Amino acid sequence: MATQRKQPSKITLFILSFFPQLPLMEKNLKLCDDILVESLSPNMGYYFRSEKVLAKTQTEFQSLEVHEFKDYGRVLRLDGIFQTSDRDEFLYHEPLTHVPGICMNGARTSLVIGGGDGGAAEELLKYPTMEKVVMVELDEGVVVASKKYIPDIAKDAFNSKKLELRYEDGIKYIQNTSEKFDHVLLDLTDPFGPSAALYTKNFYEDINRILNPGGALSLHIESPITRPTIFSGLYWTLKSVFKNVTPMLNYVPLYGTLWGFAIASQTLDPMKMTKEEVKKRLAHFNLPDLKFYNEDTHFSLMSLPNYVRDLIKHEQKPYTPDYSPNVESLISRNLKIVEIN
Description:
Blueprint: E1 11-16, E2 29-31, E3 35-41, E4 44-58, E5 63-69, E6 73-78, E7 81-85, H1 90-103, E8 109-114, H2 119-124, E9 132-136, H3 140-149, H4 151-154, E10 163-166, H5 170-176, E11 181-187, H6 201-209, E12 211-220, H7 228-239, E13 244-252, E14 257-265, H8 275-285, H9 297-300, H10 306-311, E15 335-340
Parallel strand pairs: 8-9, 8-11, 9-10, 11-12
Antiparallel strand pairs: 1-15, 2-15, 3-4, 4-5, 5-6, 6-7, 12-14, 13-14
């Protein structure tokens, strides 16, 4: 027999606040500024409660916030989008770094585009084979804030003599550089606004030009759950340039969903590694403080369920500057929670 649910004393609603200072007309409405909301699509989203605001500013390029969360430590937020936390960043950085790193038996030169929190550089510099990591970050404000408020992500990476940190446009750097790299890692914000150009066939062709033989590109490709069209579109955009494209999946709590990654190369194929080879190379490099990646998760990342296989089954038109992924149309900004007493 069904029992009637007791009506809660407070009803929590999501509202879209186009004007942050919009006064609440009803006395029984309370704006919950400590609850940060992010939408993943027009039909779903998630929230975290901020225990403390550590920084809130406008850089030259974007709004920047650093918050203290009870369950996820210190969190970086850019333009209202959660970027990284010092509690779960390893679920993002380790797959991007160590799947290609182990497959190529230790890169010697790596290029990071973005990655202002320093997490990608920190993982790359764990390899004793690494001679040089070039990190190209557009927004110096992200690096400054990350050093000050979330130093546990980069650890000592920013002090390494092997790290060359440059503040400039990543597209222009890749177009103009004469250097070649074993590994290019794109640690970017989502594909909207100026970042959309970094998710196109044209940009991937430029990256292919600066990769050494046997080199690889690694990047995130959005979510097959909340943004399936963009996930599959990015897969086929990479396929239009690279012979081998290996999608990977990992759940990242801060992103609120299953997240997609890819390794792209003309020769490298992570699926051709054996478990014993991965284990042997991990032991050889003795990479410190790995929280996620091992000889088992190497393959679990690339074990695609049927619905994801179906998503990428049919060839799609690659993204170009005239036809780019449009995440902006899928998300709502400045979402607030209001309580009605």
